[in-house]
Amino acid sequence: MAGNSYGTLYKVTTFGESHGEALGGIIDGCPSGIELDLEAIEVEMSRRKPGQSAIVTQRKEPDAVQFLSGIFEGKTTGTPIGFIIPNTNQKSDDYSHIKDNYRPSHADYVYDQKYGFRDYRGGGRSSARETASRVVAGAIAKQMLPEIKINAYVSSVGPIHLDTPYQDLDFSKIESNPVRCPDEKSAAIMEEYIRDIRKQGDTVGGIVSCVIQNVPVGLGEPVFDKLHAELGKAMLSINAVKGFEYGSGFSGSEMKGSQHNDLYNPDGTTKTNLSGGIQGGISNGMDIYFRVAFKPVATIMQTQDSLDNKGNITPMTGKGRHDPCVVPRAVPIVEAMAAIVLADFYLINKTY
């Protein structure tokens, strides 16, 4: 299986399966001499880990990171940073019913067809549990770039939308509720909606918005390696993501050029920011903001038709522990992938 690495100079490779012994990763290219705050890494992991509230999967994993290399006396050495995250709460018997069956809208069928063999326990390598390794790499990337501020938050759950401009939100309230929505009233409505969806044995999607501030001018490479192209690739590589838009996004297609152009101030900043902080594929120093759309979790606690490996259509009811809505736990994953992209471009920019 190829495609387990991301990045050019700050390169992250992940490994492991949902019900294997451990997940893990190798970070290549991290500069030496960075004094790491290991507690901050644990905080990022706790934001993603399962079982953190009543509206997420009840799988209980401490997600404790064990660093194996690349760190000495609390500082990065410049050598590859290796780490593992042991799995401690697998319940593989919950997945025995899909050994010979393909769940609707999962990767079961395509993995079997492509590789001829699959680890069906918890989805194996296709499980979103893989993203735990990305959060570790992203947490270190954030500490590489302490001046850059990355804040993601839930801006919609199903039909419930938070339309308040991000400039009017208090990002310090993101962690004040289990939904990770900085608007308390909207968060309460979203949480109740997720609880109701869970009672129905169903799932629901949502949107995570992300704002990146204090980005220097010059990150990104023209043509094929544009900053927004890499951010899009990074976000679309996250499990369950179905869409990505930055700046004015699709709404910009309805505007006139006279409305959409960001006019300059004398210092090079712009009066508006419909460009989303990126022009010509390069950061312009303004805030970068984007939205990431997540589909409903495919495993539902209702009976649906599935396909077995002999070509028969058979009924199947979901089992196991699953999120009724992924977006609350996706917030730190979106931040992590954004940090990894920026760390990579930061190092690339230093080569000029």
UniProtKB/TrEMBL annotation:
Broad EC category: lyase
Pathway assignment: Metabolic intermediate biosynthesis; chorismate biosynthesis; chorismate from D-erythrose 4-phosphate and phosphoenolpyruvate: step 7/7
One GO cellular component this record assigns the protein to is: cytosol
Q: Name one GO biological process term.
A: chorismate biosynthetic process
Q: Which GO terms describe its molecular function?
A: chorismate synthase activity; FMN binding
Which residues take part in binding NADP(+)? R48
User: What is the E.C. number?
Assistant: 4.2.3.5
- Asked whether the UniProt record includes Lyase among its keywords, one would answer yes
Quote any Pfam family the record assigns: Chorismate_synt
Which residues are recorded as binding FMN? R125, S126, S127, N239, A240, G280, K295, P296, V297, A298, T299, R321
Q: Which reaction does it catalyse?
A: 5-O-(1-carboxyvinyl)-3-phosphoshikimate = chorismate + phosphate
Q: Which cofactor does it need?
A: FMNH2
* Alphabetized UniProt keyword annotations: Amino-acid biosynthesis, Aromatic amino acid biosynthesis, FAD, Flavoprotein, FMN, Lyase, NADP
Identify the HAMAP family for this entry. Chorismate_synth
What's the family? Answer: Belongs to the chorismate synthase family.
NCBIfam families listed in its UniProt record: aroC (TIGR00033), PRK05382.1 (NF003793)
The UniProt function text for this chain reads: This reaction introduces a second double bond into the aromatic ring system.
Protein name stated in the entry: Chorismate synthase
Species the sequence originates in: Flavobacterium hibernum
